[in-house]
Amino acid sequence: MCRAKARKGMIRYADCVSTGSKQRRERRRKRQKERARAHATAPAALPRAPGHPSAAYAHPYETAKDLFGKEMSAAELIDRVQGFSWQGSFYHLASLAAIVANEPGGALSERVRRLTVDPIAQLAGSGLDLLKRARRAVRERRNRIVLAHEEAISFLQHLVLLEGGDADATPGDPEIALWLAGANGHLARWSEEDRVALSPDERLAAEMVRISRFNNKPDSLRALVRTYRIFGRKPSTGSLSDESRWKALASLAYQEGFEASFEIGLGLVALLAGRWGMLDAPDPNPVINVQRALANSRVSQDEFIAALSGVTATRDDLRAEISKRMRPDGLPHSPTALFHTPLVEIEPRRFVAASPWAVIGLLRTGVWARYLAASKRLDPRKGAQEWLSGFGYMFEDWCREVASSAAESSERRATIILPSAPGAPDEVEDVVIVDDGVAVFFSAKGRLIEAKVAREAVSPAKTVAWMEKFFFEDKGDDYRGGAVRQLNGRIDLLRRGNFEGRGLMKDIPVIPVVVTYDSFGESDLTYRWLEDESRKRGLLQQKRVGPLALARVEEFEQLMSRVARGKTVSKFLLERQGAGRHRRLDQLLYEAEPPIPPRLPFFEREGKVLTDRIASRFLQAPGRT
After folding, report:
1. pLDDT at 25 over 70
2. 0.70 cut: is pTM over it?
3. pLDDT digit string (tens) for 287-322?
4. Which residues contact 585 (CB under 8 A, 6 or more apart)?
5. C-alpha distances in angstroms, 166 versus 10, 31, 82, 83?
6. Which residues does residue 288 pair with via DSSP β-bridges, in sequence order?
7. Which of 75, 106, 400, 544 is a Cys-bridge partner for 509, taking CB atoms 3.0 to 4.6 Å apart?
């Protein structure tokens, strides 16, 4: 315990001690004097809509200022991180990330609070005013304090890679808890000032797009099956539907073939990621020791390493990438390197996975990015656009496959209308569900949100401009351009009677749904903004048109599960009127069928086939022991 007296009138985080020697504390003080102190302000809290049902889902995190009464400066945070082993620090944070991601209840669970909130009271030292306030906060509102969440843990992992020391000391739970409180005060920042005036609602909607990238808990089995099915076959339409063209692209992206590479590499790691941090898991640690893991396997070490190419990195690799976007105070700005290469090689052929979030996220974006890079190599001038177009068709094919699976159910009551192919003359929309005399138009959009718009937090204005383009871009008619504009055009055709040959009367009530492969930050604010912008542009203002809904591919799959089980979709979507206005679909789906809505049988069947294939790759080779 530190017994040195604090300087009069000066309260310092260096005086809060979790562990370590007197010599290390002295080194910290010396570095602190040499470093210019940078001060940060706490992030503005997002307002909650009074009385709105979605308010129950908002759980703000707490900063050092909230707990200790004083923000931790960038210099103080960096100084503490430098005093500990980068390998030990990274492993501790990765283990915590696994628990927060996979423990039921996540950041709000009792287990996470024992690891991150209770240790605050164990801090000691001469900073008595800081410590007294923090202990009182833990004592009075312990079950409301959130410190550990994806963005904070990831931020610290990037900082550890940059600034962590080579000492043997590994931080304990109190030290990590202090880091989390300090890091929370440095989140929610944009790198550029806006040059255009935005309304408060627009700025908040942009912030929701950014933070929606974090703290998601997807169904990993569905994510595995979806990735395997979407990327393992050519699109049904477009230039990449040509067999020779597709093979040229696929072989350039995956020399050993997508299926083999996925089953040996990312598919296996994603399966493991779903069990990291769980108390009942055979191996709960987010560590891959290649030699030990493959000791009795058909797969060689070289094959395994090759299959993981593109998702592993050394500390030096990551440092170089993180250093590209730094703040003046010495902290990284909204770092993203670990979302692209989350397997960090801490020793030769021994990897620590940053988090299950990052690994599962690669199923959505990592494979897509690898095909994009291959497309650019295949055709430097037009390859990128060819892939973007081709993937759009691949995503539409996936939505039709899921809807077709629902159509096979004997319990289904709804009518399902699908085109023979994307963009075919018989197309009403990508997927149409008719039940209880209401037509639900699902328009599938495979576009991914750009990094500068969301994770990299460049500016709210860039985010809003991207949203305007995605939803409302005008290309001269209502049948191209933004997602809302295209839906509006299909409803106009319906009202003119163009689809009566497919059994849709022109005056049938319609509910428009935009289905997205990526998450675009659905929130109450987003829906209000969409509603206002649609009204200004005269879109979706036809009679008997229900509220616009945004469905990520996960929610679309759950809606198709409802169809397969004979439940209505139109009535469910119309519940988003009145008190449920502007509600997110994921909230409503989980409230309707807690704790987890049932999957389509298609996923259970295909998931077993895929996991069996992955397991067979690693079965002991004949004659080996």
Report:
1. no
2. yes
3. 999 999 998 888 999 999 999 999 999 999 999 999
4. 522, 549, 550, 551, 555, 559
5. 30, 16, 9, 9
6. 351
7. 544
Q: What local confidence, expressed as pLDDT, does residue 56 receive? A: 62
- Residues whose CB is less than 8 angstroms from the CB of residue 231 and which lie 6 or more positions away in sequence, other chains included: 258, 262, 367, 368, 371, 394
Residue 343: pLDDT above 60?
yes
Closest CA to 287 of 237, 350, 341, 378: 350
d(CA 334, CA 336): 7
Quickly count: other Cβ atoms within 10 Å of residue 580's Cβ. Answer: 17
Q: How wide is the angle at C-alpha 44 spanned by C-alphas 460 and 145, nearest 5°?
A: 125
Residue 356: partners with Cβ closer than 8 Å, 6 or more residues away = 97, 98, 101, 102, 273, 274, 276, 277, 286
**Mean pLDDT of all residues in 450-464:** 76
Query: Does 620 score more than 60 pLDDT?
Result: no
At 252-287, the pLDDT tens digits run 999 989 999 999 999 999 999 999 999 988 889 999
Tell me the Ramachandran region of residue 521: left when phi exceeds 0, alpha when psi lies from -120 to 50, beta otherwise. left
**From CA 84, how far away is CA 168, in angstroms rounded?**
7
Measured between alpha carbons, how far is 535 from 621 in angstroms, rounded to an integer? 64
Handedness of CA 148, 152, 154, 160 (dihedral sign): negative
Side chain identity at residue 116, one-letter code? T
Tell me which residue has tokens 């008190």: 579
Separation between Cα atoms, residue 161 and residue 90, nearest integer Å:
8
Q: Is 332 strand, coil or helix? A: strand
Cα dist from 509 to 241, 436, 454, 506, 558, whole Å: 36, 10, 35, 9, 22
Backbone angles phi, psi at 512, to 5 degrees: -85, 135
What is the number of other CB atoms lying within 10 angstroms of the CB of residue 199? Answer: 11
Under a CB-based contact definition with an 8 Å cutoff, are residues 264 and 619 in contact?
A: no
Give the C-alpha distances (Å, rounded to integers) separating 298 from 167, 187, 302, 304: 38, 45, 12, 10
Burial class (CB in 10 A: 0-12, 13-18, 19+), 540: buried
- Nearest CA to 24 among 241, 215, 171? 171
Q: Domains in the chain, start-ordered, CATH in brackets?
A: 13-184 (no CATH), 220-384 (no CATH), 390-606 (3.40.91)
DSSP classification of residue 4? P
